[in-house]
Amino acid sequence: MNNRNKDIDILRFIGLSLIILAHVHAPYTIMQIRCFDVPLMLFVSGLAYGNRETTASWRKFYLPRIKKLLIPAYLFVFCDLAAFAFTNRLPETSILLKTLFLCDDGAVGCIWIFKVFLLIMLVTPILTKINRRMSYVSFLVLMFFLFLLQGVLIWIMQFVTTAPWDAIYRETLPYLTGYAIPFLLGLRLRNSDKRQENITLLITTALFVTSFGLYYINHRAMVEPTPFYKYPPQSYFIIYGLFASAILWKLRNQLNFLTKSKTFVFIGQNTTWIYIWHIVFVTIANHLLDNWAL
Known about the structure:
The protein has 12 helices and no strands. The longest helix is centred in the N-terminal third of the chain and has 29 residues, at 58-86. The protein has 294 residues and is mainly alpha-helical. Helix 1 (6-22) packs across helix 11 and helix 8 runs parallel beside helix 10 (235-250).
């Protein structure tokens, strides 16, 4: 635990806080501003793996991480379904299956994020090796290619309409490619020098300003990253996530004062279980309180 990077834990704390904020029915403007939460969490995951040796060994790498993700998720699902059974309101079979497979559409609870981390985990050894072997310019080319690939995968969705393949496709490939982008950015920035950090921040800022500006010119309205471009993640949502994540990483020294608080660090070090429990408490609070801030 002493070897942990507390700057990364603080970003985890921020990401988790933004996710919780999404579930308390905050006002529209706040909901849009804070919607870089999941990309930030994948960016943070990339930062965490930036200095780790990874292996494709099933026993050493995959199995422990699958347990770490699925045990809390399915434990929550079991308790949630037990509560449904107690009230004689068991969900339909289709909802149970969607919950079992951690879908974002129609599942019980808000556990689809575990699917995202599982998908990224499958390609983590590959992505870490690729990142270490390529130059910064090659990395930028790869990111550009992934954006193009993500756009193609989203476009193909309209042609995949046969059940259950439409659901399988929608819930996997676009999520894998989309969230691999902030994960890769985290991998890269963990060991980047100041020059590369500044160039990355400049590029993500230019992408954000240009894409959101063009959207406003064409539609005479601001982009709504969530929910229209989030399920699965599309370019506007991803670009906003990269922009916000790059800024927060650049400001890590200014945020360093938060590492002096054991509470913030503790939350950052225990995001999985806190995420699970927040669903319970937020659900209760939403029924008992009218004030979203409380």
